[in-house]
Each structure stands twice: as C-alpha cells, then as structure tokens.
Specification:
single chain, alpha/beta, Rossmann fold, 7-stranded mixed β-sheet, two-stranded antiparallel ribbon, 9 strands, globular, Proteasome assembly chaperone 1
C-alpha cells in the first residue's frame, strides 16, 4: 500500500492560527471585554410535602385553555398542593375523587423551567402513568434556533392513518413543545420508566413560541383587571385563587 506523502505533515500554519483565534475570540470584537453567560437557576418546588395518597396514581396534566375547560368540568375536585417557581404559583395539584391526580398548568412556563418541572413531577409524584392534554396550532410550526442546549421539543413523524368518515381531516402537529414534550422525553429517563401519552387538540390560535427566561425578563406584561368570572380568565391568578380557596369543589357539566 502506498503511503500518503503528506499524511504525516503538520497542518498548515494558517489552519492552526484560525482554530486558536476562533476559540479565543469567539463572540468578541476588538476592545470588547469578556462577559460570563448568566446562568438562571429558578427554584422550583411544591408548597408542602407531597401526600402519600398522591403517589403512584395516574396523572392528568391539563395545560392552557384546553386544560382550564377540562378542569372546570370535572366533579369533586380538591386542591391538595401547588408548585411555585421563585415564589410564584405556576401549577396546582388536584385530587379527583380517589382515582387520579390532576396537575393544572394554566400557561407554559419559560423555556428553562420545562424540563426541570417535568422531572420534578415524575420524581416526586411517581405517577403510574401520565396523560398530557395540550393544544397545537392548525399550521406547521417553524422554530428558530433555541438558546437552550436541550430545548423541550419533539419532532413528529407524519404517519398516514385512516380517517373518520364525515369529519374533515386536520393537519397533524409536526412539533410538540413545552411541558408535553418534556414529559414525553423525561418519562423515558426518569427513575422508573413512566408511560406518557400526549393528547393534542387542534386550535385556531396562532403558534406562540416558548419564551426563554432572558426574554421574559425584558417583556412588560400588562396586568389584567381582576374579575370574579372564571370564564374571563384563561390564564392568571384568578383561577388559582378560586381553586385554592375551596377545600372541595363540585362542578357539573
């Protein structure tokens, strides 16, 4: 076998210089000082210790608007715990009779909390199975590059299935984002593998990308006027206060 006469040669000088410069000067300009990337670590915890009666049960994760409609139509639901992020309540843990637990999350948390929240749910509640009820926009989603190393999203395969007669077919979702995606991924690598199913309901609402903490800190959100009417609120603290202030709720369809 003939040997490559250049195989043992050192790289060209400009290649060495370029590599070193790329590593040393990446993201910097002449005169610019080095800045450390800010690491955001928001504390996430249950308000109180998880009751043993909430463990090892089927868990229904109700998200957003579809989750609100589902929760308000359940009977005999009681608030047993809540999850807070940096002191702000982001989810309520509900008990439905004695058969299952329900985690109501009115809006998707920021990007950095999605995976952390899914791990917290699986590790502390240890559900026997998880069903996530979520929505997806009736359009194809195109995402920009994420600033997270492990963005909580899953690319879905487009599989042809037999349609139901008399019902117009809707385009299937091509991407799952947020808590639903994080639960599907975390269920495979949790302490004990947990079956997780995502029930996705199409919506005409436009796609809203998951916001990172860095962006959320720079966004000014106008506070809604308080109202006692539950239907006025898809998200916000009103739903939490109504649920949390009631020891036992009785809703009928």
């Amino acid at each position: 076998m003939e040997r490559d006469p250049l195989g043992q040669n050192r790289p060209f000088r400009h290649q060495i210089d370029s590599d070193e410069e790329d590593e040393d000067m990446q993201g910097f300009y002449p005169g610019q000082q080095s800045q450390q990337t800010q690491i955001i670590d928001t504390p996430l915890q249950f308000k109180s210790a998880v009751d043993a009666r909430s463990l090892h049960k089927p868990l229904l994760v109700a998200l957003g608007e579809i989750g609100r409609h589902l929760v308000t139509r359940l009977e005999q639901v009681s608030v047993v715990n809540e999850i807070s992020a940096d002191g702000q309540v982001i989810a309520l843990l509900l008990a439905h009779k004695d058969n299952a637990s329900i985690l109501y999350i009115p809006s998707q948390p920021v990007l950095e909390l999605t995976h952390k929240l899914s791990v917290l749910i699986l590790d502390l509640l240890k559900p026997s199975s998880v069903v996530s009820v979520d929505t997806y926009p009736n359009t194809t989603i195109y995402l920009q590059d994420s600033d997270s190393e492990n963005p909580p999203l899953l690319q879905l395969a487009n599989v042809a299935e037999d349609g139901v007669s008399g019902v117009d077919s809707l385009p299937p979702p091509n991407i799952i984002e947020g808590i639903s995606a994080a639960l599907l991924s975390s269920g495979l690598i949790s302490q004990s593998i947990t079956p997780v199913v995502a029930l996705l309901v199409p919506t005409l609402a436009p796609h809203t990308p998951i916001v990172s903490q860095r962006l959320a800190n720079n966004v000014v959100v106008a506070q809604r006027l308080k109202s006692d009417d539950l239907d006025d609120f898809i998200e916000g603290q009103t739903m939490f206060s109504i649920l949390a202030d009631s020891d036992r709720l009785h809703w009928s369809v």
